[in-house]
Amino acid sequence: MKLSIIIPVYCVEKTLDRCVQSVVSQTFDDLEIILVDDDSPDNSPQLCDTWAQRDSRIRVIHKQNGGLSEARNLGLDMAKGDYITFIDSDDFLAIDTYAEVMKLAETADIVEFPFWRFYGSTKQQQIVFKNTTYVNMQDYWLNGYGYEHCYVWNKIFRRSLFDDVRFPKGKVFEDVSTLPLILTNVKSIKTSDKGLYYYCSNDNGITAKATGRELQMLLDAHLQVMAHWLDDRYYMHVLDIQLDVCRMTGSQPLIPKRRVTPFAKGLSISQRLKTIIINSLGIKALCHINKRIRRS
Fold first, then answer.
1. Which of 226, 142, 154 is nearest to 190 (CA)?
2. How many Å apart are CA 93 and CA 28, to the nearest integer?
């Protein structure tokens, strides 16, 4: 029941050792660790080679720079495990994570486990899950709030799910484009309260420095999903992204009009206020108001 762990590497000489050490120290040891050096200009390539010399389970691929999606895709092409997972090389794992979640892997297509978001910052937040099995992917996405933790690094995937799926090249927030495609072939997802991934705060990362163009990619991915799965809470989640895109690019809103009840389950106070505005004045008016407030 081998697990292939794909770790893209780019400009992470300060965090790579911590990341890889957290993997090789796992108490589940039937591992294949694939380090994909994306032509990193720092000392990361040499660190990768040093790790490969120290641990026979580690394979290193050096490639021309092509971005995160291309690095993950090359790792998928090379992976030989029955199961697949990913780690970003500035993050790390709690020591027993894979031993705990791999117990569930034989009876589910995907196993999802807890994580710290923005670990090490004032915004850090631990995301936990109940031990739940989802057999309806719409239920997982909407009622399990899958769109709020649409990451591939806190999940174990059955290898066959990637037979016809790859990450989109040239895009950021690629997980939001990829996970819904994977879910079309998933029969069951198990969420676990065991295991822990540390998604570390990075002031130079894509999330922290996203431009309007990059947020447009995130919005486009969600708009595609909304055509199939939608409720009021998800709509307001995507609307908040739309507001940022309008503010940063000056573009007109693309999100379709929807009348949302201010009392929908799970809405924040600010989202409830926004529902009142869009229901009475429309989305364009809300974008204009939001832009003026952010400028003041």
1. 154
2. 12
